[in-house]
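Below is how a single chain appears once it has passed through the pipeline. First comes the sequence as given, then the structure the pipeline wrote out for it. We keep one example in the README because the format questions we get most often are answered faster by looking than by reading.
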Amino acid sequence: MRLIALPLATALALGAVAFPSHAQARGDWALGLGIHQVNPKSDNGALAGGTLPLEIGSDTKPTVSLEYFVADNLGLELLAAWPFEHDINIQGLGKVGTTKHLPPTLTLQYHFNSAGRVSPFVGAGLNYTTFFSEKTTGALAGSDLKLGDSWGLAAHVGVDFALNARSALRVDARWMDIDSSVHLDGADLGTAHIDPLTYGVAWVLKF
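Resulting structure:
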């Protein structure tokens, strides 16, 4: 494993020097087109006084991001996506519904070695998640299910691999603090703690 890791690390380091790209300067923009999976954490809380443990499913959809550089290497990014759809399961009852959501996220992020072949970045910001098109099935079929919108913190890490002076392949991951109030036929059942890890790839165009 060490014999593989050392040449790989050396190649990446040399690549960062040997294949320069366009540095991210103040006033630049970057457009990202990708595909990402929203993967909720394993423990999503329990409703009705802790008697109904929740399990929220994952989903994968196209995403788009737009980043404006407020200073050299420092960008403000807005993330948008095609609506994600998630199965809602209750332990012991199985699938009881579905919901769609949109998670626009604003992140301030710093890019290291932005003129190099390999450019990692880190960021933090704010997420707003809106839920809609809730449907019930199984044990809750015919009931009116509503999930409340959520505000929370977000974190973003990733690496850009330069393809040429103006474009890159991005591999990244985000964490979002998403907590949603759950109502069934108007009654407050509690809170769903979704807090997903979102990860994927994107093509990034700098202009």
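The chain is about 10% helix and 65% strand.

See the next section for the split statistics.
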